[in-house]
Amino acid sequence: MTSVSTTELLADIADSLATILPEQRWFAGKGRPVRAVLPVRATDLAGADPRLVHAVVEVDQGEHPRDRYQLLLGVRGELPESLGHAWVAAAGDHAVYQAVHDPELTTVLLELMTRGAEVEGLRFATEPGVTLDTEQRSRPIGGEQSNTSLIYGQTYILKLFRKVAAGHSPDLELHRALASVGCPHIATPLGSIEGPLSRDGGEPAAYGMLTEYLRNAADGWAMATASVRDLLAEHFVTEGAPGSVEHTDPADAGGDFASEAHRLGQAVATVHIDLALALGSAAAPPGYLDTLAEGMHRRLGSVLGQVPELSPYRDALREAFDEVRELRGPVPVQRVHGDLHLGQALRSVTGWVLIDFEGEPMVPLAARVAPSSVLRDVAGMLRSFDYAANHLPLGETDTEYRAATAQAWTTRNQNAFCDGYAQVGADPREQAVLLRALELDKAVYEVGYEYANRPLWLPIPLAAVARLTG
Question: Which of 328, 314, 267, 337 is closest to 447 using CA atoms?
């Protein structure tokens, strides 16, 4: 099989890839037919049997530009039963499979980083002063939406960027910037995989980022929703009958989250200050607020055309967005996280850590790396608290009690987060007009998303819009 070139290999399995790729969680083109899968580049990284092939393919779905995806393919004469679930296709008398599930092959990636190897333009490197243990075996993490991450032992985690585009990765760039100023609220960057998108060269792309693995870290979303469940449970062990709108005080519940929300606010403010220190900040250029407001109106118009339930709030939303244009005084802008919510925060034994600095996956790279107000991140986190309080349990019959309890939890934790932020940076509530507009803009986006993807969740952002415009 080694005599078969990587280009021939991809051509042999192209039809199978057209079937398998839409089934992957990280595939961005779901709902649109795949016309063809076209090879862009393919590189042998190691071995004859098993063989490791790094590939980039372009998916033709009738739109331009076409999306490009990174694949790690393993090739074996005999596929072990343990790897049967990773099957992709047969190529001659060999099996081709997804190599992220094969720890024998993924160890090669660490070895190449350790050597600082370059293979047909693909550059594998460690960060300055880093020495890796190449004996660690990997396992993939389940549940990721847009990337694939491999945990090596209990030491490292390698994020493989699945949808790739020319340009530097904001995730890798911001991790390096924050590490350069000693920010304590990130996982330490350890290595990278970068290189051109095609064999012909051109602008480089980021393929992977290796960081320390935070063992025993808890996911912020899981912690917050557990707190909400604890609070709801308090109601059913008290003497008050279900149906009363007198909710349990979140401060008295066993799983109160407010102290963690406060610490999270401090961590986010620290990250913002460190990003400004590493990469700079400045007053927004002339026209920034007009452009910001125009974007909000544009999104609103698009969602109004799809979701009639948003119509009663049309005028109030437009007024809130227009108020942004009238703001006076300098508006500081800088690099920010760009997609901040509770799922992007991990609680380690030493404190909160922010992850996934890639920004909104559906937003063009140029917009993701453009300087912005830190209030965009704050607004994202405030919306995340509202989601944590309201998304579970859906279908609750005691709706009055549940709504009152959810609002009490949300308010308490949003205030705790802002209090913590204000202890380190400027109080975000002092810029109430801009913060409110950014929250509403995020909620409008959520209305459109839930309408298209999770209709049962649509009442959550609609209720937020009603509350914020009321």
Answer: 314
